[in-house]
């Protein structure tokens, strides 16, 4: 890593722990900063804070005392999930203390170039595809960000021989200063996280920050089928690389005559691609563009796309039992993601859906349910999702206590050739700690059928 002197002897507050805060605090301590960590969880219940304390880092736990902001901090490193209306953050803004997120630190110390992926849907799949393709092409990639590995930890071990492929949320991007990916991707933009951002305009503005520091030497890969994404591109200094699933482009990535193409060159026939779903073509096109721009070849792309069946919990194939194919799409925590999942299959579908009630109706889901023969609902939104099913004319609508109990019910009301799909259209927090836990429970229940 670059042994930067930027933070030497500076007084810095790391606000909120979790994995990103722990990594940021330890890194800043290593770089010679005077670090204070503040986390709401009490010290005796906070092994992460205890570990930092053992390293000689000052720890304030159990609450967020506003008077802490009077201690002369020169920088705040904020957990991405902490909103800007938080009193501690408001106090920092009032005192004109710079506020960053941990990905900014990762960029500043990284010897490796970055490929940054953001957007509303498809980030994880696109990030994973690029990583797998670069690995198949012997390009020594490292994977980081929202996908599970803290970027500042990965960056410490990266060299000039590596490429860091990093999934980025709008929350993380709001806290950047110098951060600049050599290749940036905006997959698509839809309404999301408006409880955090307040308005769609603010949300899109946060996503646009991925390209704010890019120059003419960098690349911005964008969805040419969305005007809001193209508007961001028009304001970027980077070289624009468009992709489209709907039209043939003069340059960039697109589909023509059954082939995925890039800059006029045929890369792979779509019939050879294992990953299901029309929406995944967007992810594939952007990943192909990023991979080729990073120096990998067509063989690496072909190897991955003929074997890659999806990331865990995102339209993940689980098993086939008595002619029924089971798919785990637990990461579908909004209606759009479930619409995309339903569009991926032509076979009759038995859909498992429901979860946390955020107050919205499911009217928008109704047109996408045309291929659903049986609907099994669960969680707080069971009745609302069931109403959408009735509006769609689904004849068999059943209710289960949870995902585990929904699986055998789904099997009982299915036939050979059917797809049994968990795609909840809701967050998991009413019944499960994370969507990963929910998906794991689905997988376990499927295996129990055997």
Please tell me about this protein's structure:
It comes from Mesobacillus jeotgali. Cell wall formation. Catalyzes the addition of glutamate to the nucleotide precursor UDP-N-acetylmuramoyl-L-alanine (UMA). The protein is an alpha/beta fold. The protein has three domains: 11-100, NAD(P)-binding Rossmann-like Domain (Rossmann fold), CATH 3.40.50; 103-305, Mur-like, catalytic domain (UDP-N-acetylmuramoyl-L-alanine:D-glutamate ligase, 3-Layer(aba) Sandwich), CATH 3.40.1190; 316-448, Mur ligase, C-terminal domain (Protein-Tyrosine Phosphatase, Chain A, Alpha-Beta Complex). 33% of the residues lie in helices and 21% in strands. The chain has 16 helices and 20 strands. It has helices at residues 18-30, 47-54, 87-94, 102-109, 123-136, 151-157, 170-173, 194-197, 200-208, 227-234, 279-293, 298-305, 335-343, 382-391, 403-412, 435-448, and strands at residues 11-15, 34-39, 58-61, 75-78, 99-100, 114-118, 141-145, 163-167, 183-186, 219-223, 239-244, 253-256, 259-262, 265-269, 316-321, 324-328, 349-353, 372-377, 396-399, 419-422. The strands form three sheets. Strands 7-8-6-9-10-11-12-13-14 form a nine-stranded mixed β-sheet, with helices on both faces. A six-stranded mixed β-sheet has the order 15-16-20-17-18-19, sandwiched between helices. The chain has a five-stranded parallel β-sheet with strand order 3-2-1-4-5. Helix 4 packs parallel to helix 6 (151-157) and helix 15 crosses helix 16.
């Amino acid at each position: 890593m670059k042994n930067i002197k930027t933070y030497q002897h500076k007084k810095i507050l790391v606000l909120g722990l979790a994995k990103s805060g722990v990594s940021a605090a330890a890194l800043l301590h290593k770089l010679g900063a005077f670090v204070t960590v503040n986390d709401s969880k009490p010290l005796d219940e906070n092994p992460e804070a205890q570990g930092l304390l053992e390293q000689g880092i000052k720890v304030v736990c159990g609450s967020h005392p506003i008077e802490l902001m009077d201690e002369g901090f020169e920088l705040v490193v904020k957990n991405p999930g902490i909103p800007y209306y938080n009193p501690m953050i408001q106090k920092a803004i009032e005192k004109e203390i710079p506020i960053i997120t941990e990905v900014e630190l990762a960029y500043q110390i990284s010897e490796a170039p970055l490929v940054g992926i953001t957007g509303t849907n498809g980030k994880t799949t696109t990030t994973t595809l690029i990583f797998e393709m670069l690995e198949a092409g012997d390009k020594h990639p490292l994977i980081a960000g929202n996908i599970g590995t803290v970027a500042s930890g990965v960056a410490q071990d990266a060299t000039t021989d590596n490429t860091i492929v990093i999934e980025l949320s709008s929350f993380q991007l709001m806290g950047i200063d110098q951060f600049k990916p050599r290749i940036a991707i905006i997959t698509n933009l839809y309404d999301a996280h408006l409880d955090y951002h307040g308005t769609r305009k603010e949300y899109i503005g946060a996503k646009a920050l991925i390209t704010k520091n890019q120059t003419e030497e960098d690349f911005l890969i964008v969805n040419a089928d969305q005007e809001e994404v193209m508007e961001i591109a028009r304001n970027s200094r980077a070289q624009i690389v468009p992709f489209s699933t709907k039209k043939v482009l003069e340059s960039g990535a697109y589909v023509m005559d059954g082939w995925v193409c890039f800059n006029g060159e045929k890369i792979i026939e779509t019939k050879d691609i294992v990953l299901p779903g029309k929406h995944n073509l967007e992810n594939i096109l952007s990943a192909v563009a990023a991979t080729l721009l990073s120096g990998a070849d067509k063989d690496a792309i072909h190897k991955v796309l003929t074997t890659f069946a999806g990331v865990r919990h995102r339209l993940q194939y689980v098993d086939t039992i008595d002619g029924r194919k089971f798919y785990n799409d637990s990461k579908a925590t909004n209606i759009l993601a479930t619409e995309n999942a339903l569009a991926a299959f032509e076979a009759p579908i038995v859909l498992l859906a429901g979860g946390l009630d955020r107050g919205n109706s499911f009217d928008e889901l109704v047109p996408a349910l045309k291929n659903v023969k049986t609907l099994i609902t669960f969680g707080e939104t069971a009745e609302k999702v069931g109403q959408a099913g009735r509006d769609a004319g689904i004849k068999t609508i059943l209710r289960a206590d949870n995902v585990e109990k929904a699986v055998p019910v789904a099997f009982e009301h299915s036939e050979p050739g059917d797809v049994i799909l968990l795609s909840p259209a809701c967050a998991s927090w009413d019944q499960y700690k994370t969507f990963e836990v929910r998906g794991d429970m689905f997988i376990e229940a499927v295996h129990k059928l055997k």
